[in-house]
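Before a colleague's protein record goes any further, I have to sign it off. What it holds is a sequence and that sequence's fold in token form. Would you go through it and say whether the fold makes sense for this chain? The record follows directly below this note.
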Amino acid sequence: MAIRKKVPVRRHGAAAGATADITLPAFSYQNDKLADLIVAIWANGSFNSGGVNTQHLGDEICFGPNARDQNGLPTPSARAAAKAAVNFFANMDLNSVVIITEDEHDDDYTMQDPDEVVFVLPRVSRLIPGTAIPHPAIPPMPNYSADLLETAKVLMACTPNGI
């Protein structure tokens, strides 16, 4: 289970253009605004920011039929939505962002861009069955319950590269 990155082989005698996969270390970054993003993706509500206008943010980023290409990799529109959402919710200025599911992480996702920042969305199945996730129109920021946001925060911490 890992996120992998293709890097040029620099050893003497390596074939020109040869690459090798390396496993990137997992990290945990606590940011309350990213907890809002987790819940927004789970809620699959509308989003309009950073040139992305969608009725279903979760579907656009990772759940919908157009979020992955024939090889199972995030599509350009999924990447654009992830970048816009992370930069909007977390007040960041990242250029290349991908949000993948835990299943994609567990299947050893390989980065497609050397500058890509990969976030892993915690599984919503960890919530108590029947937990109401609001279906907000965002922005403006939704008013989620404090319990749901705290749950998202703890799942960020226990999910490798979790957002």
About this structure: Residues 76-90 form the longest helix (15 residues). Strands lie at 3-8, 19-23, 47-49, 52-54, 97-101, 109-110, 117-121. The mean pLDDT is 80.
